[in-house]
Amino acid sequence: MRPALRLFNTASLSVEEFKADGTVGMYCCGPTVYNYQHIGNMRTYIFEDILRRALKAAGFKVNHVVNITDVGHLTDDADSGDDKMEKGAEREGKTVWDIAQKYTNTFMQNIDALNIEHPEAFPRATDHIPEMIAMVQTLIDKGFTYTTDDGIYFDTAKFPDYVKFARLDPEQLMAGARIDMGEKHSNTDFALWKFSPKDKKRAMEWDSPWGVGFPGWHIECSAMSLKYLSQPLDIHCGGADHIRIHHTNEIAQVEAATGKKFCRHWLHGEWLVMEKGEKMSKSKGLFVTLDVLKKEGINPLAYRLYCFSAHYRSPLKFSWTGIESAAQSYASLKKQVASSAAKTDSDLSSTRIDEVLTAFWAAVNDDLNMPRALAAIWDMLKDGSITADEKRAALKIADTILALDLLKVEAADSVTEKISSGGSKVVFTGSKEFSDEHVTRVLSIVDARKAAKLEKNWAESDRLRDELVAMGVIAKDMKDGSTECVLK
Ligand code: AMP
Ligand code: ZN
């Protein structure tokens, strides 16, 4: 028997049984496509993917929407600074539209590599400007706004519940008001529509009843979520950084505009942090991408597994030693599955399978406790009294949530060993077929790289490593002195 799905709700600060009539409408704040998404962003999408899979496993149909923010997200969440998209275009000497396309594409490749299921809709902000203008007009008509020299602002003083969601301290808000806020009446007021600057032509701007400009970032998510989902939304998710400003502002503007509750259940993923505890962040330049991990020979699914080492509501520390040990755990998990689970499918049910899956579902449905869910799988693999057929049957079900390709036997699992003429042991793994000629070339580069390293000629060893990368080979020096070459 599976227990009911229980989820923490940021709105009540407690774990509640999740209930919904019919299809679950779920909105998740998506990427701002001005740069690569880092693996911290990916941590949040992985947590949302687990939520989506757990909802489906609990028998719900899901209508899941993830927006693509391609305009209006300023470098400062409090409405000052530049538009991140325009800055991205300047940085790369490309048009904003090219930048949006480039980083949307890499975002899609990244989520696919992490086995993150696609939502039912991926709306782009720039395709929904009329909906945003309509919502701003409603707020103007209802008297919730004021106009300054640079835009139309939501007047938070007119929405007394503003402090409620993030448990903001009204005293502190007043203290905050002493900092420079331009023409804003209060520190918490936020832009609904920004006018284009008078001295500069923006690449992205639209006509509106109030002048040429562009939407504020918060109104984008509200207009798109209400276009695709019915109100109140069942679920709204994002990273924990969104509680204080972005989601607080979304609640204020939607509830002011519609007079109805915006969303029933809010979930927020904690951050991936750097070793000293600071948030992994693009704006601070402290970030690692999935492609960097891949270049280091780390399988994206090893990063997915790494994310399961902490509960989604706890911070997770990123370190190279941590991720390397996750890569080893992933390899060992796959190895254990390969050696202990049956190779062919058989429809099987047994008390032992039920026991394993009861522990697994109890963990998943207890506010998505993935460390515990995974522990149930490790325990099962070690248990000699559970048959190979039973293990395979249980893994097949567990992988509908874990999505670690546990039962997939890849060419990557086939391993060939060679000894180079310089005497180095080189272990080839990977999915690509290599000609003998290629293998000989790789062996000679491995020898040359070892020699360069011995001479501490780092420039030469880096150059040789890049040469391998250009051939589609990721080389890793192993502790036993051998070299692992992953063919991609
Ligand atoms: P952005 O592209 O910055 O709008 O962020 C996309 C998603 O990633 C949002 O849900 C953010 O809250 C989340 N996010 C940003 N930084 C981190 C981090 N270091 N760890 C986890 N999630 C993050
Ligand atoms: Zn959002």
CATH class of the largest domain: Alpha Beta
**Portion in strands:** 5-15%
Write down the Rg: 26 Å
Q: Helical region count?
A: 15
The CATH superfamily name of the largest domain is: HUPs
Share of residues in helices: 40-55%
Mean pLDDT: 91
Kindly report the spatial arrangement of strands forming the biggest sheet: 4-3-9-10
Number of strands: 16
Domain module count: 3
CATH architectural type of the largest domain: 3-Layer(aba) Sandwich
Element layout with pairings:
Elements: E1 6-9, E2 14-17, E3 24-28, H1 39-57, E4 62-66, H2 84-92, H3 96-113, H4 129-141, E5 145-147, E6 151-154, H5 170-176, E7 190-195, E8 213-215, H6 217-228, E9 233-239, H7 243-258, E10 263-269, E11 272-273, H8 290-295, H9 300-307, E12 316-317, H10 320-340, H11 351-364, H12 370-382, H13 388-402, E13 416-419, E14 425-430, H14 436-454, H15 458-470, E15 473-477, E16 483-487
Parallel strand pairs: 3-4, 3-9, 9-10, 11-12, 14-16
Antiparallel strand pairs: 1-2, 5-6, 6-7, 7-8, 13-14, 15-16
Helix pairs in contact: 2-3, 4-6, 4-7, 6-7, 9-10, 11-12, 11-13, 12-13, 14-15
The chain binds adenosine monophosphate and zinc ion (ZN).
